[in-house]
Write a structure and sequence with these properties.
The protein has about 425 residues and is α+β, with helices and mostly antiparallel strands. The protein has 13 helices and seven strands.
């Protein structure tokens, strides 16, 4: 989708430039309006389709809606059907563009889950936009004043967007969000420059009269830069979406879907790395193998739904008993393993016993009544020349002794 958008956008811009027969280097205002309409339509449709293609895509759909509002706004401003109502059409079109900016800001807040306080900018931005209506009712359309009010509305939300992208994006999104924040700030500077131009040159000199819709030299430049901004922001949003989907897929590939702890693959990879570091640095390393006692009877008596709740509760209880840096994984059925970096034999045995006591006190409330369970655990230490598979085998042997020795107990591997 990103490549399709890039190709279509580039094709539209190139074809438009080639179509300018008199002076290809300078695009006319109507042509630039058409380019903006086309770009926003393409961006809006791409983003709406992307937002509907996965769960949680509502913010992306809102961003697409904002682009459609931009397109409708530019279309309303330039529509030849307006005729004698061109002044009202210009006002409505600019209000639609402001509305697109508001929707885009809200969608960014939702996408990055920024705090609610970031929405307060909508109030002053909305007031600047509504001031156009009041001005129109009092003195009619005065284009320079409309430009100033519209730019101030967009400056507030553009700077706010840059702040959100910089401060509230997840670390994995920072490359994309940082680039987008930079472009937002550049766009804000351009808008401020246009405000300064209107207030310092156009309005004092009376270059544009009341009711005049043309003659503003900043309009072509602003429209051309708007094309670049639309192109960049849409690609940036899709870039962040791609990164977030990649993060989700990586998490699903490394996480047990029921208990939300690491799966066997993730634990084995972490174990190999920890073992290598332990051998290189001479640090101790321990592994716990844990099995829920008589779990089959829980499933047989209460059903698999209750069994799943018990496993989830056991995983949560084990996690709460671990240190920072320890890693819990579900390695199959009712069996868990815990990686304990930098833990000696005594520390590992104490952690295992703490886990055992915590699970013994666990009560899982269900619609069928309260369910309790116990665990058995085996502890193994990394030897000077042993590998990961040997460490797991030693912990399994210790676990087997704990289960054959009466269950609800901890055994440590010998040798």
């Amino acid at each position: 989708m990103i490549y399709n958008f890039t190709g279509l956008a580039a094709l539209i811009i190139v074809c438009t430039i080639l179509n300018e027969s008199e002076d290809p280097a300078l695009l006319s205002v109507p042509t630039l309006h058409l380019v903006n309409i086309a770009l926003h339509l393409i961006a809006g449709l791409c983003l709406i389709v992307a937002g509907r293609s996965f769960r949680g895509g509502a913010p992306l759909g809102l961003w697409g809606l904002s682009n459609l509002l931009y397109a409708l706004g530019f279309l309303t401003v330039t529509s030849p059907l307006a005729g004698s109502h061109a002044l009202i059409g210009n006002l409505i079109g600019n209000l639609l563009i402001d509305a697109g900016t508001v929707v885009a800001y809200v969608s960014l807040c939702l996408f990055l889950k920024s705090p609610r306080r970031t929405l307060w900018l909508l109030l002053p931005a909305g007031l600047f936009s509504l001031a156009k209506v009041g001005l129109f009712l009092v003195i009619g359309l005065y284009l320079p004043a409309n430009v100033v009010l519209g730019c101030l509305c967009r400056v507030l939300l553009t700077v706010g967007s840059a702040w959100i992208l910089w401060h509230h994006a997840e670390p994995e999104l920072r490359p994309a969000s940082g680039v987008l924040a930079g472009f937002q700030l550049i766009w804000a500077v351009i808008l401020v420059a246009r405000v300064v131009w209107e207030l310092g040159i156009v309005i004092p000199t009376g270059t544009i009269a009341h009711g005049d819709l043309g003659g503003d030299p900043t309009t072509p430049v602003a429209l051309l830069l708007r094309c670049c901004v639309t192109f960049t922001l849409t690609l940036g949003y899709l870039w962040m979406l791609g990164r977030r989907l990649e993060m989700r897929l990586n998490r699903l590939a490394r996480q047990d879907p029921l208990t939300r702890v690491a799966n066997r693959r993730a634990l084995w990879e972490a174990g190999d790395s920890a073992m290598t570091r332990a051998h290189q640095q001479g640090w101790p390393l321990a592994v716990l193998m844990i099995d829920v006692d008589h779990f089959k009877s829980v499933n047989d008596r209460w059903g698999h739904g209750v069994g799943d709740r018990v496993l989830t509760a056991v995983a949560t209880t084990i996690s709460a008993s671990l240190r920072n840096g320890d890693l819990l994984g579900r390695v199959g059925g009712e069996e868990f393993a815990v990686l304990l970096p930098d833990a000696g034999a005594e520390a590992a045995a104490n952690i295992a016993e703490r886990i055992r006591k915590a699970v013994e006190m666990l009560v899982v409330d269900t619609s069928h009544g309260s369910v309790t369970c116990t665990i058995s655990a085996g502890v193994a230490m990394l030897g000077a020349h042993s590998g990961w598979d040997r460490l797991i085998d030693d912990a399994d042997e210790a676990l087997y002794r704990a289960k054959t020795g009466g269950r609800n107990r901890v055994e440590t591997a010998t040798g």
